[in-house]
Amino acid sequence: MNPRILVPVLVAAYLAVPLAFQSNGYLLGLIVAALTIAGIAVAWALLGNLGGMVSFGHAAFFGVGSYVSAVLTMKAGVPVFAGLLMGGVGAAVASIATMPALRLKGPYFALAILAYAHIFQILAVQLEGVTGGAGGLLSIPRFPSVLGVDFGTKLGGYFVIVTIVILAALAYDAIRRSTWGLALKAMHDSELATRVIGVPSTHLKAVMLVVSAFITGVVGAFNAHFINFLEPDYAFSGSWTVLPIAAAIFGGYRTVWGPVLGALVIYLLDQLLFKEVLPHGHQLVLGALMAGMVLWSPGGLVPVLVRRKGGRAHAHA
Amino acid sequence: MKPLLEVDGVRAGYGAINVLWDVSLTVAAGETTVIVGPNGAGKTTLLRALMGLVPVQGGDVRLDGASIRNRRTWDSVADGLVMIPEGRMIFPDMSVEDNLMMGAFPRKCRKGWKANLEMVFDLFPRLKERRGQLAGTLSGGEAQMLAMGRGLMEQPRICLIDEPSLGLAPVVVDEIFRILARLKAEGLTIVLVEQNTNRALKIADQVYLMQSGRVALSERGERVDLDRLHALYFAHEAAE
């Protein structure tokens, strides 16, 4: 990761934003929600850009992650931060169940995984003994205090999610720069050609699916412990798929930071501006915004900013 | 000496359409085996079947005496069975150097990538000049050299080369065949599929003629009579 990008990001994430907004609970809450979307958006873009797979099913991984962590912490006494990781593991395991869909390509994969997402929602409703059924789970434990820092507050939650998002972006960047990243890029040019030269292309795609599901699961688990409440319609809501996709495309889904930037811009604009102007149907404006971005810069917002700075179009933003 | 690669009564095709009926041939280590034949004879299908890209429905394929029938392509590549495909199949949106690096993807090739890259640049100085250029901007001849270089990065024991001269200017074809002769002199085992019979026969140790999914002629390179080969080549086609 280029330190000229990473250092400002870290300063903004750990100093500027907390200092500016710590007293404004409403705004901080919105930023946490935007970062939750950002985390899924990074995971989605990782799968879309590196794995070449458009997924309509990330709500499934988000929901599974949130339920796994909530249930483990409530019923098995697992510490909350360990639950966060287990949520990721749970989503990764769930993604293995969706792997038959890897045999499909493009829109067929997207639709198959959309159907899978629904299966997990039904499971959450039906497995009443574990998940509390349609009524959901109440009083999911908060984040604890560690070394004198209370992560159970809004500000504490902010630090948790911003760390998750930054780690996810760094992991994405590391994979992209590795030999595997190169092989995945080659797969977009021609999957047959990569097979000819001995790349286990199916395995690589499967690994990207697992990584993407893991990140999404961790974000889902975070959300469960942050809002302390879950029910199937909410945890598996299509919004957890649609908003991250919109954010990733708006910000630039072929860049590492585009999905994060896109999530912050789209979600905050929507909540702070469009919702004020148009209390009902404010999402309409999001659609127009997306359409505008696709016309103006199909690559998204980040490529525009990079060009403005006079940087090369190929800069690893 | 035991053959390095044995193809024993292979039947293969695409779904309901069978292309290879009963193909048997052997490839000796260090030799150049040339497979000629008209369009549609099944030459490319044979190479793809050897690589596990087309399912083998009957017969067997053995490498070093062990069956590799329908083995996963990447396992065969890791074992030194390398194909330089027809139409080159380079990655147009990646740089020349990254294309070559892709050849070193199999784990056992990663350690030696630096030396192999130097070896490839030594063989194809033109690729070195263009190492940072996008592969999609290369000329046909350069793209063929890139495909060959990428194949060599895979540290082949046997190189299956499919129509390297296809669509190239005669002067470039000369260069490609000069390089093939050099690789042969260095001891690489080559299986060459070519339509350019004259050229291919000059470097052949063993020649097979394929006709409609079968081997129609098998002869040592030095004993092949070009007129007879051409007669067979065209006669059978006319008879179909």
The main β sheet of chain B shows up as:
6 strands, mixed
- Top-tier CATH class of chain B: Alpha Beta
Q: Give, in spatial order, the strands making up the sheet with the most strands of chain B.
A: 6-7-8-3-9-10
Q: Characterize the biggest β-sheet of chain A.
A: 2 strands, antiparallel
Indicate the overall shape of chain B.
globular
Please identify, by name, the CATH architecture of chain B.
3-Layer(aba) Sandwich
Count of alpha and pi helical runs of chain A:
15
Largest interface: A-B, 17 and 27 residues
**H-E string of chain A:** HHHHHHEEEHHHHEHHHHH
Distance between the termini of chain A: 9 Å
Number of domains of chain B: 1
Features:
heterodimer, A: 317 residues, mainly alpha, two-stranded antiparallel ribbon, globular, disordered C terminus, B: 240 residues, alpha/beta, Rossmann fold, six-stranded mixed sheet, four-stranded antiparallel sheet, 10 helices, 26% strand
Summarize the structure.
The complex is a heterodimer of chains A (about 325) and B (about 240). Chain A is an all-alpha fold and about 325 residues long.
Description:
The complex is a heterodimer of chains A (317) and B (240). Chain A is built from 15 helices and four strands. Chain A starts with a helix and ends in a 9-residue tail after the last helix. In chain A, a hairpin with a 2-residue loop joins β2 and β3. Helices cover 74% and strands 3% of the residues of chain A. Chain A has one domain. In chain A, the strands form two sheets. Chain A has a two-stranded antiparallel ribbon with strand order 1-4. Chain A has 317 residues and is an all-alpha fold. Chain B has 240 residues and is of the alpha/beta class. Chain B has a six-stranded mixed beta sheet, with helices on both faces. Chain B has a four-stranded antiparallel beta sheet with strand order 2-1-4-5, with helices on one face. In chain B, β4 and β5 form a beta hairpin. The longest helix of chain B has 16 residues. The model of chain B has no long low-confidence stretch (mean pLDDT 91).
